[in-house]
Amino acid sequence: MANESEITHGTDNTMPRGDMCTRTLAMPADTNPSGDIFGGWLMSQMDIAGGVMASQIAEGRVATVAVDGMTFHRPVYVGDVVCVYGDIERIGNTSMVLHLESWVLRKNQPPRIKVTEATFTFVAIDAEGRPRPVRKDEVAV
Known about the structure:
- The protein has helices at 4-9, 39-58; strands at residues 19-25, 62-72, 81-91, 95-106, 109-124.
- It is an alpha+beta fold.
- Mean pLDDT is 89; it is low at 1-11.
């Protein structure tokens, strides 16, 4: 595994990809038995952030239908500020594929460290939970 210096100063890992969707603080209640932040908590933060972005794109309700390539690069610790960034990969008739990255600030200080990334797929749904079209020509996030 690469050390933190390689992660934060590598050629493609120096800046987050996309726009910040959410920012939160990792708390003691979110730890696993080893004392690190539980990976499921981090994945849920990414799903929340992606859902916010996807609902803006879809202008309404969305549902997560897939998560691909979830990679945990570095641990997250209690007290880390966790920022999730999102970027549109593609928009289909009813679905949106978003690339999401989680970056942390340790002790609320630079440098940012990329800790997790994945591709999330969301589907726009109507009030009955059925897929509905996403208006591609009007997308502005």
